[in-house]
Amino acid sequence: MIIVLKKDLADTEKQEILLALRAEGLPCTEMQPRGGALLVAGSRPGLDVGFLQTMSGVSEVIPDKSVFRLTGREQHPEDTIVKVGSVAIGGERIAVIAGPCAVESREQALTVARAVRRFGGVIFRGGAFKPRSSPYSFQGLGEEGLKILAEIRAETGLPIVSEITSPEQAEIMLKYVDMLQVGARNMQNFELLKCVGRLDRPVMLKRGLSATIEEWLMSAEYILSEGNGQVVICERGIRTYEPYTRNTLDLSAIPVVKKLTHLPIIVDPSHATGMREKVAPMARAAVAAGADGLMIEVHHDPARAVSDGQQSLYPEQFGDLMRDIYVIAPVVGKQVDFHYLEKAKAVSVTERGAGARRSVAIAGEPGVPDHKASLQYFGEELEAVETDSYREVFESVSGEDSDYGLIPLEHSLTGSVHENYDMLIEYDLRIVGEITLRIVHCLVSTPATKLAGVRRVHSEPTVFRHCDRFLETHPEWDRVAAQDVARAARRVKERGEPGDAAITTPEAADLFGLQVLEEGVETNPRNYTRFAVIAKNPIADSPKRKSSIVYQVPDRPGALLETLKIFADNKVNLVKLESRPVAGRPWEYMFYVDLEADVEAADFSPVLEQLITHTDYLKILGSY
Fold it and tell me: Would you call 529 a catalytic residue per the annotation?
């Protein structure tokens, strides 16, 4: 049974509940989902739970109808996010774990780790203890391999995951690794599962060679029942009769597991296929199917690898795969962040002090695309500060009430957000990053409303423009402006009037308990918003690949062409050029330019000096 505890529960009240459960001989595990706290307790036939329902610290007692007491969604509807060092698995960003099957030498492991880091991997994998089918195969370097992994973490900043094969290895593993892997051959080694369940480390549990999904999740139950809720499950293919692949990658398990459990799921296409040329297609498919991450074998010289060389990608192939999933991830509402570790380090070392979290200002509340973009760019480490307008975002960052701000600069369907460009000139702030988010709009209403009964549609005015083709098919609907899509959803929920609907995000629909009448009502599915991150200073001291500037040229023929020729002569690629009227000065214009270069780098200074001599005004909006 599930015992939901009150939010203001006193410690004495909790101890009273635990004592009552022990008195009844009922085993109990405490869990801390993001929505509050609860106890998962055993039961027995004929047990009267009335004694629990009357206790002061108990909010609700829910009978347990699922075989998955701890891994199931019934008692833990919120997704679990597992932290491995500074990396979150199960959040808004795809976590890519990569490295060789086995640590063979210091030189080999460091060479691969540097490549993994360079191409965007965020966790390094490498086996120090290797369970092999043959007792004569390479069994790993043991503690020597673990020391090499620790050196890799110190140099690259990559957290480390490595396989534990026996409870006797627990003490030594805790000295060196950030995450413990329980391999496929040990999925039902129950003593090992109990052992890692008692350790203070995240655990990656691989699916057994022929395990059903239920057997797999029940193995996870063993770990959670010992008190360790930081579990990631890994689909790595199951053994079937098909001889053309090493195993059969069960991609259908991803949506099944997503529905059954709150635990994050990653996919290992290397072990699933066993062949290098099959790894990338299956990795792309896994991301498209909704996986929270990937585990990829990479080796700089796979022909000489002591294990699994035939399924290991060359570093350059890994880089190509990372670019592919960078493109795929936004389609399924995720991101691949090539600067994940730099951002995490920068945020962690610049805390405000006195326990205060660093913050990012957004316009609106949870449910708006800005909030989702914040989570995908920063994760949950930063506190989102809700404001009522984009000017308030600028004011919050300018006044140092927030460390960062998030503003939309461009919609793929309706163009630039000019007022935000204007404020970039007005305020002494910089663009320090950007993120592109796919926007899906839904028509939602209260559960009692049907599509035929809709009379009024609430949303932010720009959203009406994004969905004009759908709205044109319903000319009888009144359009009612709201400040943002989350407030539109809230208004429909709180008013509860028949005929009211809102165009909003799927996240806002879930947040306010509204039903989706039509999904994907945007005019074009390739509907993206480009957000800029603004701040007073750069987030991290890392190479910049892009810059934004604004300038004004003299009012004479060829003045703009002269500036463009400077870019052309120096082989600088422009990705955006747009004119914008100068406020209060009719028929005068400025030009916003995005270019693929770091305009503040020393080697760009000659180009910048030429631009300054050919312009009346120039401002660097930021390099990122």
Answer: yes
Domain coverage including residue 449: 442-519
Q: What whole-number distance in Å separates Cα of residue 376 and Cα of residue 457? A: 29
User: If pLDDT is split at 50, 70 and 90, which confidence band does 20 have?
Assistant: confident
Active-site residue, selected from the candidate residues 531, 567, 591, 604: 531
Active-site residue, 446 included: no
Domain shared by 49 and 93, yes or no: no
Positive or negative: CA dihedral 574, 323, 371, 542: negative
The answer to whether residues 238 and 122 belong to one domain is yes
| Tokens standing for residue 318 | 């890994």
Task: Residue 506: give its domain's CATH number.
Answer: 3.40.190.10
CATH number at residue 273: 3.20.20.70
In which residue are the tokens 């919120």 written?
78
Instruction: Round to whole Å and give the CA distance between 393 and 363.
Output: 7
Report how far residue 581's alpha carbon sits from residue 422's, in angstroms, rounded to the nearest whole number.
10
Query: Tell me: the pLDDT tens digits for 247-298?
Result: 999 999 999 999 999 999 999 999 999 999 999 999 999 999 999 999 999 9
The CATH number of residue 605's host domain is: 3.30.70.260
Decide: helix, strand or coil at residue 58. strand
Considering the domain architecture, whether residues 176 and 237 belong to the same structural domain is answered as: yes
Dihedral through CA 604, CA 608, CA 611, CA 615, nearest 10?
160
The rounded distance, in Å, linking the Cα atoms of 109 and 122 is 15
Q: Which of 71, 529, 563, 615 is catalytic?
A: 529
